Amino acid sequence: AVLAAADKTDPVARIAALMQLRLVAGVNELLDWIGRRKEVSEDGSLTEDDLVRLGELLGSAGAREWWAALVYTGIIEVGASRARRGPQASDWAASDMPPLALAEKLVDIFVAENLTAPLRNASDAASKALVAGGVAKVLGLLTDQEQTLGDQAVPATLHALVAVTLLEPSGRVPEMLRGA
Fold it and tell me: Is the pTM of this model over 0.70?
């Protein structure tokens, strides 16, 4: 299984593979952008201009989900009307490669946020069933129960994962990440 293979892969190779992902490699640039603190909206959410800038840093869609993952990992903190470096930011930026566990947690939360975002917005059972099916497919890929998402187009819930190269357009996990 992909997850079992990851545990057996050399940690240096794992972090090197993760650093090829913009959502991991772009964190230091994001921390530079925040500086000591970054003004955000009064409720702590991102402004449209901030979302555009995050999209540029990430190189694709998924800015809200990336921001949430950064908050949940403690790389950034968001309070009323400002964001700042979180308690994990210094560990992240301490060397050329961030701590493996923190990078994996960032990717894990980003994936979870992308997969569950449509559930927060779906109001009908059919939409929720489609999202659940997409989640099940991804879990199948990670456990080698499925090799691809099939001949169907990648479900909309997975487009952000394709955009940040966590999945190939065919739905396969990229070769560089299969053992990472």
Answer: yes
Largest interatomic CA distance in the chain: 47
- Find tokens 């566990």 and name the residue: 101
Q: What is the DSSP letter of 61?
A: S
Contacts of 137 (CB under 8 A, 6+ apart): 146, 149, 150, 155, 158, 171
Would you state the pLDDT for residue 98? 95
Angle at CA 144, nearest 5°, toward 138 and 148? 55
State both tokens at 22: 């913009």
Which two structure tokens, joined as six digits, stand for 161? 């994962």
Distance between CA 129 and CA 135 in Å, rounded?
Answer: 10
**Cross-strand partners of 169:** none
| pLDDT tens-digit map of 51-105 | 899 889 888 778 889 999 999 999 999 988 889 999 999 999 998 899 999 999 9
Q: Which pLDDT belongs to residue 153? A: 41
- Tokens describing residue 50: 């901030």
CA distance 93 to 133: 37
